[in-house]
Design goal:
Length: 895
């Protein structure tokens, strides 16, 4: 019946839309007709009429109705199922309010407004009420400013609220970032775009999918003012626009993207058009570029149309796809990119071909689809990134001084808020009233501290659990969440887990907590257990528990897969999937796990392969196959790798030095292993993964290794091989070396803390990144009064002017304040003025260098490294070294 009603409403909606009085939101008739067509297609794809109930609101104006139609036509499925239409209507009205009240509102074109002001979503964050909150705080602060000054002012406000700190890949909502007071670059830029849009300034998140010259990526913001797009570092205010620490690395970028909501016909090169967004290429704003055309042919030389062409950058020890194109009728696909090397991979119907492409040197490349699954082979590739050529706007000393003063004030405002959060001492005192063991109390105290501004939520949950004498169960549930979950989980989610707890006496607290685990993958946490416990008749639910494969069959039958309607793969909530009965594959998998756990079936998504899994009553684990007619355990084999150590690298690390990928449909998909805390020596390595063998599904695989040069270039080796069922496959893990170029030999956390010495007193602890800024720096840990240290300092002093010309910071650390008091810099005339002295608190820097560089004696001083703020080490020295200054300068000249 719903489907019939829905089909009747589609043409009715068209009549209503075009007969309403009032001004149009979509003023161009051709574009309006296109949006209407896309909206009607969306309605047909989601037959539940309740999902579009907002359009029956009789108070809607024509402009509001069209704005809603525009949003609904292009928003991903989850945004329709998981948020009510009234939420979007409120945001439409807020955006129009800002447009009328802000002085620049009339200068923002309709196209800019609909694509870069109106949309609520920026990335894959949870949606919230930030537009209303931010506008309330910002409107008086910016309304008297020019548009450019308003952008700078909004960024200063953002810095009052949030600073950079790395975290996991899930993106916090803007208000969650404010509550936390920090975020990674993707969260800072999402937050800043939301703030700019709240006051009617067009803004978009720009990101490099991966840098070409180092193992990292970055996201920042572009904002429109007076007819032009400008860029800025989110929550990192500078005195002027088009300035950030990333000017230099961006000049070495191969590709910069932004996703524009809906169908977009701007001046930029279109990378990809999807039913949700248009991806555009903005690399020309940052770096010199060149265009290349790729031609794909079959083995007989005939052009292949519709072939997939992936453009890949080497990063994190894999060839990562930064752009995907499809060939036209003549077999052509083109891309504009920075003037460096990419790996281009073409595939069609299971066949593939690949080659290196040097943009700026080659403008054409022909790829032949002459490779098939199962062929064993090895290839060497040298990948060279673009050269640096930063373009920096002028900043006067007065502007810099004023900006620095503002940053200090903003730090104090933010720190005042942070001081209201839990400390470990306060947390222990608060937890003393609960019936917790000493170990559990320490664990819970650390959770409360890590939860930042959300600690009240965890405390309320613990109090409710204590009322039921289930503190151990509450703690077991919280342990399974990430630190980011602690920072933004809602009390409703936690309470539901408490209210729907499985039979803990029968299965035990830990097993019960695993089944009740809130987190499946990277979805928005929502309460669904009670809902799903009522969803099926008792007998049907019991049949699912008895034989979980029946639940798989139910999902196959009832959930229609439509990946295109959720192009960004933003997970739909489990109840959202239930309501729509349409989902992308990943959301379907999350739904299955959520449904299974609600019924008491152990289930998860495997972190390595990404496949949904369940455990049957006999304790057997099955990979869920939503295509096969029946569920079966996948045949597996063993993979071993031999490794001949190279200097300073006895144990290569996954993501840093090598990766594995499995072949599927013409492309290789990365296996995701634990990254761990690299500074503490954890994570996946050759030793704990491949030295003695690891079990993998049978199939065709690719091993990629890479040695990163200090210049940013990479010496890579690619190996293809097959793992056969119940057999052991042995491959060689080879790290290529260069005798001519400076190589990256290890990792060092540039955000490590130390205590700077200012005059004769100690300052507040700060990170090396704060002291040195972005780029290369030298860190030395000194043994005061010891001959090796004295010799090293004299060597450095002899070349003091050379180090000053280099201009980068040298941080010299003492193991203790007592050691520093014995040091007299006057004994070493000529030491460069670029030196900053400090205390290595708890010897943490010394221990980290010894650990990460595999030094045999962590107590032998001095230690020196050259590293950069992308955490790469290119030089290490320990103990007595002849000509240390010359060695340091030789490495510096080779960078």
């Amino acid at each position: 019946m719903k489907t019939l009603v829905h089909l009747l409403l589609v043409p009715f909606f068209s009549v209503i839309l075009f007969s309403c009085s009032g001004s149009h939101f979509l003023k161009e008739e051709g574009y309006r007709n296109q949006v209407l067509q896309d909206f009607e297609q969306k309605q047909k794809a989601l037959p539940d009429g309740e999902l579009f109930s907002i359009f029956s609101d009789s108070t809607l104006t024509l402009s509001e109705r069209e704005a809603l139609m525009f949003l609904y036509a292009y928003m991903p499925i989850g945004d329709i199922t998981d948020y009510h239409g009234k939420y979007y209507l409120a945001n439409i009205r807020l955006s129009e309010q800002a447009r009328h009240e802000m002085p620049w509102g009339k200068t923002v074109t309709d196209e800019l407004f609909r694509h870069f002001v109106l949309p609520v979503r920026v990335n894959n964050e949870n949606l919230d009420e930030s537009r209303k909150v931010f506008y309330g705080e910002l409107k008086e602060r910016v309304k008297g400013l020019s548009m450019k000054d308003a952008i700078l002012e909004v960024n200063h406000w953002c810095h009052e609220k949030v600073v950079y700190r790395p975290s996991d890949a899930r993106t916090s909502s803007p208000l969650a970032s404010v509550q936390t007071a920090y975020g990674r670059c993707g969260e800072e830029s999402t937050f800043t775009v939301a703030a700019l849009r709240s006051v009617g300034i067009p803004a978009r998140q720009v990101y490099t999918p991966r840098w070409a010259h180092t193992d990292d990526n970055h996201a920042w913001v572009e904002a429109w003012a007076d007819g032009k797009w400008y860029f800025l570092g989110a929550c990192e205010p500078e005195p002027v626009l088009n300035l950030g620490w990333f000017n230099a690395p961006a000049s070495r970028g191969m590709l910069m993207h932004t996703k524009v909501f809906g169908r977009y016909n701007g001046p930029e090169e279109i990378m990809l058009e999807t039913p949700n967004y248009t991806e555009i290429n903005v690399i020309d704003n940052y770096a010199p570029t060149a265009k290349a055309v790729v031609t794909v042919t079959d083995t007989d030389g005939r052009p292949v149309s519709g072939a997939r062409v992936d453009f890949k950058v080497y990063n994190y020890a894999e060839f990562y796809t930064v752009a995907t194109k499809y060939t036209d009728a003549d077999g052509h696909a083109s891309l504009t990119a920075g003037r460096g090397d990419m790996l281009v991979w073409a595939s069609d119907k299971g066949a593939f071909g690949f080659s290196k492409l040097s943009f700026g040197k080659e403008d054409r490349l022909t790829l032949v689809l002459d490779k098939k699954e199962g062929e064993a082979s090895t290839f060497d590739l040298e990948i060279v990134p673009p050269i640096e050529g930063a373009n920096l706007p002028e900043v006067t000393p007065e502007q810099r001084k004023e900006n620095d003063c503002r940053l200090a004030l903003e730090d104090s405002i933010r720190n005042a808020y942070v001081s209201t959060m839990m400390t470990e001492e306060h947390a222990r005192d608060t937890l003393s009233r609960f019936n917790l063991s000493d170990t559990d109390r320490e664990t819970m105290a650390k959770m409360l501290v890590a939860s930042r501004g959300n600690y009240h939520t965890l405390l309320v949950f613990l109090e409710m659990a204590a009322g039921q004498k289930r503190e151990d169960y509450a703690l077991a549930l919280l342990r399974q969440l990430s630190a980011k979950d602690w920072r933004d989980v809602s009390i409703l989610n936690l309470i539901e887990c408490l209210m729907t707890a499985p039979d803990l006496e029968k299965m035990g607290v830990q097993a019960g907590a695993e089944i009740a685990n809130l987190r499946v993958e990277n979805e928005m946490l929502t309460p669904y257990r009670h809902y799903f416990l009522q969803a099926f008749p008792k007998k049907e639910a019991e049949a699912f528990v008895e034989e979980p494969s029946r639940l798989v069959e139910w999902c196959k039958k009832e959930i229609k897969i439509d990946n295109e309607l959720n192009s960004q793969r933003i997970p739909i909530s489990p109840i959202g999937v239930w309501r729509a009965r349409v989902a992308d594959e990943k959301s379907r998998d999350i739904f299955f796990v959520a449904m299974a756990r609600s019924l008491g079936i152990p289930a998860k998504i495997d972190k390595v392969t990404g496949k949904a899994q369940y455990v049957d009553k006999e304790g057997r684990t099955f990979d869920v196959d939503f295509v096969a007619n029946s569920q079966a355990q996948i045949p597996v084999g063993i993979l071993r790798a031999t490794y001949k150590p190279i200097s300073s690298l006895p144990d290569p690390k996954y993501y840093s030095h090598f990766t594995l990928s499995k072949f599927k449909d013409g492309v290789f998909q990365l296996l995701n292993y634990e990254e761990g805390d690299a500074d503490m020596g954890a994570g996946t390595t050759w030793t704990n993964l491949l030295k003695n063998g690891t079990s993998l599904d049978s199939g065709y695989y690719m091993l990629v290794t890479g040695t990163r040069m200090a210049s940013g270039a990479v010496l890579s080796k690619v190996t293809f091989f097959t793992i056969e069922p119940e057999k052991t496959t042995t491959v060689d893990l080879v790290m290529r070396e260069s005798e001519e170029q400076v190589q990256v030999i290890g990792n060092f956390n540039s955000e490590s803390l130390y205590t700077p010495i200012s005059g004769d007193s100690l300052s507040t602890a700060q990170s090396l990144l704060q002291t040195c800024g972005r780029g290369y720096f030298i860190v030395g840990v000194l043994g005061v009064g010891q001959e090796p240290t004295n010799h090293a300092l004299r060597d450095i002093a002899a070349l003091g002017s050379d180090f000053e010309k280099w201009g980068r910071k040298m941080v010299l650390l003492f193991p203790s304040e007592e050691q520093y008091n014995k040091f007299h810099a006057a004994e070493f005339q000529g030491l460069p003025s670029t030196i900053t002295y400090g205390i290595d608190m708890d010897n943490s820097v010394q221990k980290q260098i010894a650990k990460s560089m595999n030094l045999s004696n962590q107590n032998m001083l001095p230690m020196f490294i050259i590293a950069d703020t992308f955490n790469r080490v290119v030089f290490v020295s320990q103990g007595y070294t002849i000509g240390l200054g010359e060695q340091l300068m030789k490495t510096i000249h080779g960078l």
